[in-house]
Amino acid sequence: MTVFHRSPECRRRKESLRRTRALLSSTPSLRYYIHLADGTTIKTKYFGKGFRAGAIPCNQKSVYWFFKWSDSYQPRLNSGLCTLNRVFIEPRCCINESERKSNDSSGVALKKFKKDSVYIDKNGKLRNFNHKKLSRKTCGSMRGRGWKFGSGFVDGIFPVLSPTAQLMLEYLQKEVDSERIWGSLDKLPPSLDAWDDVLTVSVQLRMRKKWDSIISICKWILLRSSFKPDVICYNLLIDAFGQKFLYKEAESTYLQLHQARCIPNEDTYALLIKAYCMSGKLHNAEVVFAEMRNYGLPSSAVVYNAYINGLMKGGNFDKAEEIFQRMKKDGCKLSIESYTMLINLYGKAGKSYMALKVFDEMLSQKCTPNICTYTALVNAFAREGLCEKAEEIFEQMQEAGIEPDVYAYNALMEAYSRAGFPYGAAEIFSLMQHMGCEPDRASYNILVDAYGRAGYQDDAEAVFEDMKRVGITPTMKSHMVLLSAYSKMGNVSKCEDILNQMGKSGLKLDTFVLNSMLNLYGKLGQFKKMEEVLTVMEKGSYIVDISTFNILIHRYGQAGFIEKMEELFRLLRTKGLKPDVVTWTSRIGAYSKKKLYLKCLGIFEEMIDASCYPDGGTAKVLLAACSNEDQIEQVTSVIRNMHKDMKTVLAVA
Questions:
Q1: 8 Å CB contact between 400 and 406
Q2: Is residue 351 pLDDT above 60, yes or no?
Q3: Helices 352-364 + 336-348 axis angle, to 10
Q4: Handedness of CA 492, 493, 494, 500 (dihedral sign)
Q5: What angle do CA 410, 413, 418 make, to 5 degrees?
Q6: End-to-end distance of the chain based on CA atoms, in angstroms?
Q7: Nearest to 550 by CA among 529, 535, 571, 532
Q8: What per-residue confidence (pLDDT) applies to 295?
Q9: 202 with 236: CB under 8 angstroms?
Q10: How confident is the model at residue 102 (pLDDT cuts 50, 70, 90)?
Q11: 7-23 pLDDT tens trace
Q12: Do residues 350 and 418 make contact, with C-beta atoms less than 8 angstroms apart?
């Protein structure tokens, strides 16, 4: 049943009804479900750009409200009109001052609601949001987790799920068997409502990173359902395969899209390029990039950003920087996301000075940073323990009118943690709670790590217990930071208790955990226990990687077991492992401790011949091997000349 709210200007009613019918017949719409306080559900429509939640413009001074009741709810009305207390949401046209100052039914002044920032919550009440203060957890699109097409997003507000979609989402988050999922989806009616529910649920699963569930849904659409898949379905599937590093499956989906005579859009190419980059297939990514241009699609910021993002996730930072420079040369307008990703890139590479340079360039180009940009810059300084610079950027963010969210607070806590100021991190933790921002699991982990780094293991365990008390389940990361705290103090029995606790919690031990125990036993000279852990790793399903051998080589070398160290080094080739800078430095360090300068130089030459370049740690152990001024001068000269020959950092124009 169609219900209209009568305008006070009754004489214009017929004309307004005519305009309404014309608008309904000519405007494509997106469905929204609104859950009322009494448990019922109404379904509204969003009409074009400029109106919210079913607001239909009838004239410049009044608004008609169109509601179409869902099939499951048919209210009994004594008359053909539904009486509403007042207009819920203003149109994007000028309203008089008396209306702007009036209050709504809940007593909230309408004047504080910006015309671009209002929506109806699940209880049917009028709410507003501030774009600057919107949490990235609420608005997933701000962290690249949203979906631009087919999701029904309006200014960052996700549509409320229909009752059917909500049940589907709850079921798919629990069920993992594809056949059972397909059997349940087979029961859906072949209707447009069901199709919208399936896509909306897929987008919600994407936000939760449930890639297997997305693959099951999209395969059901392609292989078993009566629905005809569109480009959004193929894009979701390509994205899911890419996130699981299944680039061949993503490529196959792209070919299926062409066979189905479906036209790929820029998102299709962006997601396929990203999938290739994450899997290290850079040549394939370049081929797709060229193919996109051959089809006449411009290389937009969306495609470049996906390209850079994929390279960063694949660990190809140099190539990501190269693509950023190409983006600028091609005249592509850099977006906020472009600058934010480059700041992240330099932050992860330990080049906070370059991250700040990009930030300054961003401001000079009149590109306004958002909360993600500021947080990325705070993180860049936090990784180097530059807490004063991190706090300075944090204050700039607040001065810009952006309210920090949990990610920003966590970044500032990390800065104090790495700088060795655990009580500074604790102060930020308390401030976050005082400002009404709820700490998450990462917040507690950072605080545990801050106390652990400073040697306050009792305080670290107290925070760990607080986390459990507030209902946050500790993960592998949570246990690892606590394990690291006790490992730093050499408390073997406590570390073993934590391992037992992890087993009881159902957490499966991985290589990283066992490497920590290897390092602890080696540090304390308990080599028998260290060998026992190594035997467990080799006989079990654990991956013995280069970091495992680095620990063994370092600990045996520092203890003076040179022959055992060299035996392990020779074993690397048979294991198919390539020595890295840590391996070579640990080996040099063993001879450096015995002041065997010539032997250290010989190993250093082997290192260079193996195309492994030294770092600061290598220079330090070489200098420690020197016995006189001539040797120190020789080492200094070699290191200085090597750094001159190394590739310099690309300048940001």
A1: no
A2: yes
A3: 170
A4: positive
A5: 125
A6: 61
A7: 571
A8: 77
A9: yes
A10: very low
A11: 445 545 555 545 545 54
A12: no
